[in-house]
């Protein structure tokens, strides 16, 4: 059944236990991602790393958001945008809003470097349960504004900005876009107007929190391949404070009002057939089509959520295929506006 508020009684974890479990998960995830990054071909390290200010919401501060920046190997990359600065892609990592960091998506960054000549900026937003909703959304919106206002320093054409997100990061990609373009709905005062975004790529994003995890799990094609309830319960309890309005577009960006959906740029979705989030991704695709938005979608057959993450340690061949397909769509968006 649809829900309108996060439960105030569903959590079986005290705040200190949530934090302890989150830290244990972060350690395990870091080891797993690190091992996969060492597998041939090894994932690259960031070209540079810097810290930027959080400029929105009630938890603003200096040097709170980490940016890992991946520059193209070739200084003259981005030939599709000849005569201009490079495209810039801002990436939000996955991990249930609880684990992960920007370097998790190093292989995606490399693909965007190679195939688009893009400068990729991977964002490590602050994590729950220590930093719950809406602060991660605000951090991601802050990072978009920062990259736009500093585009020339990064070698980016500010008219060629893109956003990508994986899982929770896919949620944040759409949610932060809604925040920036309808800031007054939540009484935000933006330090600068929202920049033009040429498109959003969402990998297996969580788009609708009003559907319960139990419903998503039970209605998926292969419920036995869904993320375990203990893990999703930890994620959701950590991220959503009691009483959170689950229809808030910053929580459930896929069911935002039509006026918000109509403002979205072109969208490409990559979904996994056995993922409990696949159906809401397809529903979102259908809604975008109904609103006559530019949208494309690939469904990775026979795969579950996060198929491009460990295990196994060596990425599956389909990962490179789907990354290339997504970047092919991105290239169309860039060429259409050049």
TrEMBL record:
Boundaries of every Alpha/beta hydrolase fold-3 domain copy: 90-307
Annotated keywords: Hydrolase
Signal peptide extent: none
GO molecular function, one term: hydrolase activity
SUPFAM superfamilies with a match to the protein in the record: alpha/beta-Hydrolases
Gene3D superfamilies according to UniProt: alpha/beta hydrolase
InterPro entries per the UniProt record, alphabetical: AB_hydrolase_3 (IPR013094), AB_hydrolase_fold (IPR029058), GDXG_lipolytic_enzyme (IPR050300)
Protein's UniProt name: Alpha/beta hydrolase fold-3 domain-containing protein
């Amino acid at each position: 059944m649809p829900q309108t508020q996060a439960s105030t009684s569903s959590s079986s974890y005290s705040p200190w236990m949530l934090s302890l479990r989150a830290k244990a998960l972060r350690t395990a995830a870091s080891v797993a991602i690190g091992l996969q990054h060492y597998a041939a071909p090894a994932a690259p390290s960031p070209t540079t790393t810097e810290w930027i200010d959080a400029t929105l919401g009630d938890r603003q501060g200096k040097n709170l958001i980490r940016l890992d920046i991946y520059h193209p190997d070739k200084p003259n990359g981005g030939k599709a945008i000849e005569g201009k600065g490079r495209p810039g892609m801002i990436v939000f990592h996955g991990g249930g809003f609880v684990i992960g960091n920007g370097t998790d998506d190093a292989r995606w960054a490399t693909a965007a470097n190679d195939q688009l000549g893009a400068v990729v900026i991977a964002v490590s937003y602050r994590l729950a349960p220590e930093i719950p909703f809406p602060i991660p959304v605000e951090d991601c919106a802050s990072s978009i504004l920062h990259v736009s206002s500093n585009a020339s320093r990064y070698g980016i054409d500010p008219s060629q900005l893109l956003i990508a997100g994986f899982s929770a990061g896919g949620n944040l990609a759409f949610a932060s876009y809604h925040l920036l373009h309808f800031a007054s709905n939540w009484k935000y005062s933006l330090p600068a107007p929202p920049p033009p975004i040429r498109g959003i790529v969402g990998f297996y994003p969580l788009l609708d929190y009003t559907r319960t995890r139990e419903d998503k799990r039970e209605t998926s094609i292969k419920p036995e391949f869904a993320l375990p309830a203990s893990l999703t319960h930890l994620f959701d309890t950590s991220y959503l404070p009691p009483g959170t309005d689950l229809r808030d577009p910053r929580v459930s960006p896929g069911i935002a009002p039509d006026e918000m959906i109509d403002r979205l740029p072109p969208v490409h979705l990559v979904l996994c057939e056995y993922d409990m989030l696949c159906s809401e991704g397809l529903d979102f695709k259908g809604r975008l089509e109904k609103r006559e938005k530019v949208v494309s979608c690939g469904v990775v057959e026979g795969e579950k959520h996060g198929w491009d993450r460990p295990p196994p340690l060596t990425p599956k061949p389909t990962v490179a295929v789907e990354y290339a397909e997504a970047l092919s769509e991105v290239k169309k968006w860039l060429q259409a506006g050049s």
